[in-house]
Amino acid sequence: MKKITLLTYSLIVAILLSLPACKGSSDEPKADYTAILSKSPWKIFAQTIDGTDVFSDLEDCEKDDIFRFKNNGEYTVEGGVLKCNVNEPVVFAQGNWSYDSNLKILSMNETQGNAFSGETEITELTSSSLVMECYVAINGTDRKMVIKLVPAP
């Protein structure tokens, strides 16, 4: 199984299990959201809490993980080239995804694995960027978390 540090696990669970709190926007037509989301695999490019970088706290083997959203509503999360554990499976999480009628809330319902279920708000979705945000409780205080994904090579 993938070695996940307590901080990393907490951040992943928080972003995907928290309810969104802000409005979404995009400069591409909403009708193309499914096509944009499923066109290519995605990887985490940046992650902040209250504007402070937390992406740099992730291990390199976690930064290259790949998110694939298929146009049939299924998703997978795959380990990238760098492995945190030699026994790490290629696909370590999978499930179903959807978004609400306003195309603002991305819901992920995991069917296998851990830490990749819940809802987050889409604040930007273009062919080159997927930005999601939510508020997470850290030590009893709500903090704004923003995660940016970009197409994986």
UniProtKB/TrEMBL annotation:
Question: Which intervals hold domain Lipocalin-like?
Answer: 42-132
Annotated Pfam families = Lipocalin_4
Keywords assigned: Signal
The lineage's top-level taxon is: Bacteria
Q: Span of the secretion signal?
A: 1-23
What's the protein name? Lipocalin family protein
